[in-house]
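This part of the workshop introduces the protein records we will be handling. A learned vocabulary of local backbone shapes supplies the integers on the structure line. Getting from the letters to the tokens is the skill we practise here. As an example, a complete record with its sequence and its structure tokens follows.
=====
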Amino acid sequence: HAPTSAKDLLAMVQRGRKRAQYNSRVDSEELAALTGNGAVTLLPRGGVHVRTRHGPVQFGIPPETIKDSLQLGLDVPKVYVVGKERFNLKFGTNTAEFEFPAYWNFFIKGDKTTVVCAAAAAAVIRQVMEEVLEGPAEEHLHQDDEYSPFVDDSIYAARPDLLREIGYFKEPRNGRKIEADTLLQFVEFACSEELPAGHLLARMAFDDGTIEVIDRGAEYDVIVDDELVATVPDWLSSAIADPPHILMPMATAVGDAIDFEAPQFGITVLGAADGFTAAGTTAGFILWMRGRGILVDPPAHSAHYLRRNGISSRKITHVILTHCHADHDAGTFQKILLEQRVTVLTTRTIMAAFVRKYALISEMNYDFLQRLFCFHSVKIGEPVHFQGGSIKFFYSLHALPCIGFRAELAGKSIVYSSDTYYDPDGLAALQQRGIISAERCASLCTDCSVQQADLLLHEAGIAPIHTPFDALAKLPDNIKRSIRVIHCNDARAAESEFEKVQPGFEHTITIDTEPPLHAEANQILQILLVTDIFRKFDVESIVDVLSVITTRSYSAGEPICKAGDEGRFLRIVKAGIVMYERDGARPFELRYCDYFGEGELLTDATHAASATAATRVEVLEIERGDVQYLFRRRPNLMARIQQRAKLSYDASWAAIGANSVFSGFSMAQVTQLQSVMRQHEVGEGEVIWRKGDEVLDVVLVGDARLAYRELADVRGATREDLEPFGPGALLVNVYALENRLRHELTLTAERAGTIFHVIGEDLLDFLDNNPGAFIWMRDTLVVC
């Protein structure tokens, strides 16, 4: 929304500065001093564990946090302190994820989890937990409308009564209701006459003493029986280790080249454990179809894991979200934010629950979140076509609305049960009670999670939320022989007759299929459609490109082009890794769909960089004359490429690398950004924007220094608030750009130097394809 006062403008600047400083946790003297206290442990995934004589207190709750305590031999806390920021923008992570700490303490320990937080945070956390535990309200259940109008009457008759099914799973167990108030208790920070003004107190009484947490603004004091045990900075409650802690097995040492060839049909498992198994990542995998992937319930940080293993995000453009428990949806939001816009496949019921949940968690409004991705509303029984194959979805039986699927390609099939309860005897009992219909019971027993397939990936766990192993053991041999289990711990799997899937690229399961007709043309077409310079070409133009493109292979270590050579080709990486080195700087890795050489062809320059094959490489090549012909018909695109070629290489890379958001960009994103940057030199005292003028662009600072001088007149502004914006600072007001508003402040150069302008229309187009950058800019005037 538009700021309404100078104080609002100052707050927007402060927000931008703080985000850049506190999203990542890296080694520092401050952290070394904190952990020098024997009571304090920095948890690998994020958060701070403080031991006390009354039990541990933890600050910050990232996904899978209980696994850190279990692996380190620490007690899983029953007391958690929620910081002032509950969502980490850099990693797209909920840092107040209470589901599994609450489940552990309730189901394993038989106790409540204590949440220490501000009153506003308590209201949000309670609302999230109520929906997770009690399911969507009846008005948010749309199963009757989620079946294809073309399905058989028998399939429609077997649709679930989601309200009854959810009601069954929240029935009291061992005399205890399953609801937010039985799993959580809240202790809210409040003013105290014992403390200085502005300090807040939360006190917890135990049989043999007390724990007090004092909020001093930027820090918390933990006082146990009147003794100071630890002081914890607030920012550590939401900071995530950088790079993030990932249990998924790396294909190679970080930085080494991986030459992974995606199968025509198969899966790569990212995690195979349940939410309580200490040494494993929660269940999720990639479904491969004709070399492109769909992430299925990606585990937390799996998008970063794939990037670190060299798997281009442009190979994996879709996500299947089966349901909204934290061990299944945590990585979905991260994938949405990592790079280009993704398509999420799920039902209307599940999608609405997901957006409601993350709107609360991230404090972004519902409509804004929906702008960040494409939603494909699947219909039960109606195939979704993907890569020449199809995926049909079914509703499984779980504590929340949940879908599984059957994927088919070239006569072969993969079935995924998702989280479900399968046990014919138990299902018959539910039918007798009227929880499920006879048609639903028959469907769950024969054509949902258990059906003949080349690979049947089935979950296994503790009934009634999950499928017991002994129920799978009773299946006929023609189904059992294709079963691999997932979402279970290793010990239970080892005691069964079933093989558990293993995470990692080296354990990829391939289902042999016949290659498609026109396979080569199809692969090239896919590359063109996700490469930014060709993405907006019409069909006729794409046909023109296909007619002039050729494929060439290079062996590992073979030069592709050298600095100073004449530019002869536009090259797009089809497979493998290319090392791209310029001016002796650290080389960049170019991977699937990255391209180079276009600027030299349109400006008659020689190659400024050298490119060498790091692995076996295939590139698509288009000759100079053909490139010039294709781009002359698109003057705007041609102008962008020529403009990027004119940028100072060192200056533009330095500015991008100094920005906390842009520095994490892939090579493809950097190329897109540089294509819309315009370099300018400004003099000291020069006005960049004047208050009252229409907002038309944004500014990325090179080596100049810029300032909003009017902020000095705002009451409460500190010296830090008034520091000039230096290298890497992006001065931006997205709301004003979208709504054609006027500048509220004057931007002036305090020191002469280089800046980069980006026209508003170009920025909005860039953000439309890079939602992770969008969220940083939505409510601030600066991204540092």
